[in-house]
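Write out the bound-state structure for carboxymethyl coenzyme *A.
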Amino acid sequence: MPDTLTIKDNRTGKQYEIPIESGAIHATDLRQIKTSDSDFGLLSYDPAFLNTASCKSKITFVDGDAGILRYRGYPIEELAEKCTYLQVAYLLVHGELPSKSEYEQWVHNITYHTMVHENVKKFVDGFHHDAHPMGMLVSTIAALSTFYPDAKNIFDEKSRDLQIWRLIGKIPTLAAFAYRHSVGMAYIYPSNDLTYAENFLSMMYRPSWTTKYEPNKTLAKALDVLFILHADHEQNCSTNAMRTVGSSHPDPYSAAAAATAALYGPLHGGANEEVVRMLEEIGSVDKIPEIIRQVKDGKRLLMGFGHRVYKNYDPRARIIKKIADQVFEVTGRNRLLDIALELEKVALSDDYFVKRKLYPNVDFYSGLIYQAMGFPMDIFPVLFAIPRMSGWLAQWQEMLLDHEQKISRPRQIYLGYPERHVP
Ligand code: CMC
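---
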């Protein structure tokens, strides 16, 4: 049987053979379907990209029905168990896990670029004391583009590599500076003798009057695993922003700032913060039936539940539940955990959630861990942005080198006035 689709246009009676490739038709093949020579041709209408592939990618595979997530073919469970976040970041960007020497060089390059220009501190100083850290992060990532005019050479491989090291290296520093500013504490410079996650914890929590600070190894390891789980998730809202903005060929700092802004929203990376706020609001297990009723009445969303792609348990949520036990052994049990566990139990046995295939997603338990580790709630989306930087950069580079890609420019269906005239 040929891999084609036969379409009959009942307006004209004409029939068309459209090739099917990798389970998809080219939307531009529909343009030949016209009612007259002046007709623009048939469009596909797909608000929010519900059924439109915008690219071909070799980076991340998600099977939402089976609850499978793989980076470059490796199951997320194996990567979380056997790799460091920086190995995974290398895998995403370069396509293969690094050899020992490649890894050492990669870690060196990223560590070497963790410092930021002193002027960046002045930007952060300029923010109001209660500025949201995501707002500060979006702005400072964008500001980096002004320090590195060489970053415009996006088709130069060496320049791209340099910006990738800089962005992965500097984002924890920007994030920690934003936090320290919001609590009125002196900024802590990066420590190059620490691992990626340890260095972040040090910049967040080291008292400014000492250079001695030993991050807890269990907490640093847990954070590193959380970084792995958040590193990429194929064509979601922020990755699409990275690719779309990147498609007009600005430097990667500008594109990454746009991606970070997209991640900020409560329906995306802001959900981890909203979950904890919701659990705080519920306050006790006996209030759960009331919340479930409000959700079923369409009055609110159950934050941390549901996903555009996963119609099964999010595999990342499963791993996070396990890490939670290790973290709580060090920090003490988060008092909200019992509410979260009961909420999950009630929701998963309720017809409303079962019918709609709404399961806990990555954000349902991550916030509880962050909270137990002492992170304030409004920094949670920042903790998502730090590791997602490697995924965004891998996707940005793939887009740039893909000869089928052009500047991103959707069509619209115009439903406004026909021509009219000013009286
Ligand atoms: N609580 C209650 N009902 C929900 C929820 C929820 N969290 N999510 C979806 N639904 C309902 C929705 O109202 C709709 O019902 P109906 O068919 O009766 O109209 C049905 O389920 C299908 O939902 P949808 O809105 O068509 O799904 P979507 O693919 O457009 O949205 C989502 C996906 C993640 C934005 C949405 O599930 C949601 O808002 N969840 C809460 C926010 C959240 O946890 N976001 C984190 C996502 S995972 C990490 C990330 O990618 O950032």
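---
The domain at 59-423 is CATH 1.10.580.10 (Citrate Synthase; domain 1).
Residues 236, 267-269, 271, 295, 301-308, 356, 358, 361-363 surround carboxymethyl coenzyme *A (CB under 6 Å).
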